[in-house]
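Notes continue from the previous slide.

Worked example: a multi-chain complex. Inputs as given:
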Amino acid sequence: MMVAMGRSRTKPAPSAPVTARGRRTRDALVAAGRELLETRGWPGFTPEQVAQAAGVSYGTFYTYFESKDDLLRTVVRMVAEEMFAESRVAPDTAGDPYARIVAANRGYLRAWRNASRVLRLVERGADSDDTLRRLLLEVRELYVHRGAEGLRRLQEAGLADPGLDPRMTAIVLGAMVEQMAHVIYALREPLEEEAVVEHMSKLWAAAIGLRAQA
Amino acid sequence: MMVAMGRSRTKPAPSAPVTARGRRTRDALVAAGRELLETRGWPGFTPEQVAQAAGVSYGTFYTYFESKDDLLRTVVRMVAEEMFAESRVAPDTAGDPYARIVAANRGYLRAWRNASRVLRLVERGADSDDTLRRLLLEVRELYVHRGAEGLRRLQEAGLADPGLDPRMTAIVLGAMVEQMAHVIYALREPLEEEAVVEHMSKLWAAAIGLRAQA
Amino acid sequence: MMVAMGRSRTKPAPSAPVTARGRRTRDALVAAGRELLETRGWPGFTPEQVAQAAGVSYGTFYTYFESKDDLLRTVVRMVAEEMFAESRVAPDTAGDPYARIVAANRGYLRAWRNASRVLRLVERGADSDDTLRRLLLEVRELYVHRGAEGLRRLQEAGLADPGLDPRMTAIVLGAMVEQMAHVIYALREPLEEEAVVEHMSKLWAAAIGLRAQA
Amino acid sequence: MMVAMGRSRTKPAPSAPVTARGRRTRDALVAAGRELLETRGWPGFTPEQVAQAAGVSYGTFYTYFESKDDLLRTVVRMVAEEMFAESRVAPDTAGDPYARIVAANRGYLRAWRNASRVLRLVERGADSDDTLRRLLLEVRELYVHRGAEGLRRLQEAGLADPGLDPRMTAIVLGAMVEQMAHVIYALREPLEEEAVVEHMSKLWAAAIGLRAQA
DNA sequence: GATGAATGAGTGTTCATTCAT
DNA sequence: TATGAATGAACACTCATTCAT
């Protein structure tokens, strides 16, 4: 445009690719973005570097994403969903509530260690970006909901303190596990992962007044 | 940039000011930096804005600090020292154990909300800076130590589960409180502060198997 | 900044330079901006080229101007004021109203030809930029006001049709002259400048019912 | 870019469509281009948005047009031709001369407001494109010619000042009306359309020394 | 010591145009 | 002929740091 002033109101929002080729390119960009975020942190996460890592030209980035933040949100959602799915407790522990708690905590810690340098980075951004903050709250809600449901079932089975509010309890105990992951993997407090899992689980069980199955 | 630590020392490192005036200027810069970090977070923490808030000219910033990170480390050190100092007079002495837990949790949450937004920011944002990471671990250690000692006394008095490792327990339950502060104040999950304090305390007490005083 | 998201609310607005050196630099940027606009039009008017033409580095541009538009507005104001000053009718025609009209029209046409490729360019931008549009209206108002006052004096002296609304008349006849400048210099309709001046003046005089001085 | 005319002809210039379908597509693009120019001005006039508005895919644009400028020229030519066509049936024939002037001015102002925002945009914005400049001069000539003929008839009938050069007068008074349209519709000077029509007509009549019909 | 001007590499984004299918 | 993905130079702007006075 010859004239620099005046913004167009109608910036065409990138839509989902319709051809297989487009899908491949978009996937490559998402993968490259995630990879860079995990290996190089914020400094590596620029549209230019992402495009280059995906093997496409700079402009192509904006064929699929409205902005850098758009890609970030996409990556975060993907990582969060993966993590949530991974941390689902294997059904073979169905009978033993304590074993389930241990498995859940171990699973969470491992999922965090493996997949979520992304989430750690993002927590920082959330301080100044509202969309990101809400996205993190959404992700948290998944865990909170699952934890609350688990507790409710235990209460109904007479295996846990019926006086505890399920949601609040899930939030607080979830926070415990989340921060431990942060302490171990980000701050690198020198602790044995398995020892932490056991201890957390013991405290968790005691906190909810878990009784051995009748 | 925080990641760019460990430069080769080719430029004159600013030395401590020798005149009273110099000291005042430096103090003003540190205070302004802390203030900005607490009130505006990372986006407000630029040399230019710090200098302006301190009422000195832009260039003066570099008379006293090698870099932006240099000031950041200085501010963090100051906040950490303050927390050390405060912790010495902790009213940890006597009375009803449960009430003490409630008071400690309430106090911790409030300290976190007010004075140490700085630490929260740094904890989530400075993951590549080793100096800061270690400083954070030191501050944590302070609280862990105090928590562990408290638990040990309870155990010795026969008021808490003697099977728990005091240090590990303090770490895990401390993490719970710390993360709840993050959830409430940074992510702004809509929760009543006092309700959280009560719930956390109840879970904490149950977790350590707290018994009412004989 | 490591984090890309979140805009700072406090962008320091560039203030007027306080030292002589600063004033020189700022003046050089304004001059270069005007020069480029006049010689190369919009395509040459980029912060980078302006800075280069002024012999300073890129970043310096933003030491003195909030944005490209900021400089543009500055240049427009300057050109407009210059033009308005230039087109003031020499006082030696005080006695003869018709001679004054001729002089004013000739002056306007010349001022436009010399100084205001800038204004022509800007008229285009005004279509999509509100600030610019208002700036142009302000400039117009200067001329309109002067024209209206002139007519009022003639009416009071009984030398012009007293039934004409001075302001509206000034607007309409001013539009006539302005567009003729555009037609001659921008569209390059092949017309003799002096012939146009004479004809415009004759029509202008007839339109306001100018009577020879008693 | 408009300034980039006269490329070396190394790529296949799009030829006129041969199938009916091709013609429909091309027409849709032209119509969409015109529509966007009229409703959104320059910012809306991008190949992408034009294609989208025409309901065809992006790439198709370049099946029919060599460039964005190619479409612009096509649209301008179309608008110009329309104006030529309309001018042929101008109701210029008889009646009260003053009423005719009023009607002509009102009509011109309205035409300008509606159909030829395109021309207004181009007149102020396309100063480096020779093709367009000449096209604009041609359109102007049409109106000038008509105006001059009208004046000549009035002079022959003894109803207007016989000392005026018809062509020059038509140019100057035409400029007056044209610029008023610009002032009202582009710069949005707050004036009543009908009041402007009346005033312009009064000044016009006085300027040519119009005498009431014998 | 203090000032404020100067620096310039880096960032996110746009968009007219080309290309493979 | 039609599609939509791909291209990349260009642009406006930021900001930690350095420098001349």
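Summary box: The radius of gyration of chain B is 20 Å. Residues 1-9 of chain B have pLDDT under 50 and may be disordered.
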